[in-house]
Amino acid sequence: MEENIALEVKGVGRTFSDGTVALKDVSFSISKGEFAVIAGSNGSGKSVLMSLIAGLDEPSEGTITLHGCQAGLVFQDADSQILGETPEEDIAFGAKNCGLNKKQVAEQVDFALAKTGLEHKRVSYARLLSGGEKRRLAVAGILAMNRSLIIFDEPFANLDWPGVQQVCSIMKQLKEEGKTVLVLTHELEKVLALADRFMVLDKGHLVFDSTPESGLAADLESWGIRNPMTAYKSIKEMIWL
Hints:
The chain is an alpha/beta fold. It has a domain at 1-70 and 181-220: 3-Layer(aba) Sandwich (Rossmann fold). The chain contains six helices and nine strands, in the order βββαββαααβαβββα. It has helices at 46-53, 87-97, 102-115, 131-144, 161-176, 212-217; strands spanning 5-15, 21-31, 35-39, 61-66, 71-74, 149-153, 180-184, 197-202, 205-210. Strands 5-6-7-3-8-9 form a six-stranded mixed β-sheet, sandwiched between helices. Strands 2-1-4 form a three-stranded antiparallel β-sheet, with helices on one face. A hairpin with a 2-residue loop joins β8 and β9. α2 crosses α3 and α2 runs parallel beside α4. The longest helix is centred in the last third of the chain and has 16 residues, at 161-176. The protein is globular.
C-alpha cells in the first residue's frame, strides 16, 4: 500500500548533454524500513541514480517520489561532506539549516553524536577522523536533520577493516531502528547480510530485483559483479582473476 512506500521510482531515465545514456526506464519502490542494496559495476548508473534520488540532479524522463520522508546522502568521498571544524560544528550546520533554534540544535547534536558513538570525538578536528568515523559523522548529520531515508554511495571505498566494521555497525543500527536504507555498492560481501532486497544495475538498466538469496544464485559475473560466495581453499586462489 502507498502509505508504506518510502521511495517510488517510475520510468526514470537520465541522458546527459553529450548523448550519454546513464539510466534507462528504471522503476522500483522501496518500503519504509526496508534495507536495500543496489549493486553494479563502475558505469552501471549507481551514482547517477543516487544523485537523482537525493535531489542533486533531475531525471530526463520519469518521476522520483519520496512519500513522507526526506533523503540524506552519505557520499563516497566522506571528506567532501565535512563542513565544520569539529564533529559538533559539522552536525550543527545541517540542523541549523533545517530551521531549528539554538536549543533544538544542541539537542539534535547530542542525540546524533550518541547514536553514532562519536561523543568522545565531539571537539576533535573533523578532518583527522578515521575513514569510518567520517562516514559515521555524515550519518550523524543526517540523523540531526531527521532524515528517514539514508543513502550510502560506495560506503566502503578507501576504508580499512576497522573502518568497514564501523560503517557496517551503524548500518545495522539504522536497520534495527526502522530507518529506510539504500546502499549502492559492488562490495556485496560486506553488507548483503543486512539486506531485505537486492537489485542490480547494468549499463543503466535495472536487470535484477529480488531477494539477496536469489541474487547470489544469479549470474552476477555477467553484470560485472563478483559473487561473494566464492570460497578460497588455498593461498594460490587468493587473486581475483
